[in-house]
Design goal:
Elements (H helix, E strand, L loop, with lengths): L8 H19 L5 E10 L2 E3 L5 H11 L3 E11 L7 E11 L4 H10 L19 E5 L2 H5 L3 H10 L9
Antiparallel strand pairs: 1-2, 1-3, 3-4, 4-5
Helix pairs in contact: 2-3
Length: 162
């Protein structure tokens, strides 16, 4: 079960990614495991996935013209390790100025209920997002650089392929 620590986005994703990795490790103790969790921090609140379309609409409307931060924790469990290694990445997103019609159009195109923050940067994110500072793949939910560096460090991916 995922937790939300109201004013601690890094702590929230860290706890959740670690729990996911430990859960998989219990069934596959000799496997290399990569588990992740993503939340949005907006105006001091940690937002996971919206409960329903009305909450998604409320959140998306509130983002107009504002900035938020997307946090993803990646728990990396190497065979033989006692605990997963944890990496946390943060990316800042600037939202466009938009109105209720834009939100409704977005909701007609994208199913937001299984996405942290009620949007998908990769699925019509151009309607809402003006720009970012940080990793694009982090906003998608799995920061590629963090995973690549861990795989290379553990000999699971050759540096020439990284």
């Amino acid at each position: 079960m995922e937790v939300t620590l109201r004013d601690d986005p890094a702590g929230t994703v860290g706890v959740n990614a670690r729990r996911k990795a430990l859960s998989v490790h219990a069934s596959y103790p000799r496997a290399a495991i990569i588990a992740a969790d993503t939340v949005v921090c907006f105006e001091g609140r940690v937002l996971g996935k919206p409960r329903d379309l009305e909450e998604a609409r409320t959140w998306l409307t509130a983002y107009s013209g504002k900035t938020q931060t997307v946090y993803t924790a990646v728990a990396l469990f190497y065979p033989g390790a006692q605990e997963p290694s944890l990496r946390i990445e943060a990316t800042s997103l600037q939202f466009k100025e938009y109105d209720a019609r834009t939100v409704d159009a977005y909701l007609a195109l994208v199913h937001p209920l299984d996405r942290a923050g009620a949007y998908d940067v990769n699925e019509r994110g151009d309607l809402l997002i003006a720009g970012r500072i940080g990793s694009y793949s982090n906003v998608m939910g799995l920061p590629r650089g963090v995973v690549r560096d861990w795989l290379v460090a553990h000999g699971l991916l050759g540096e020439e392929r990284a």
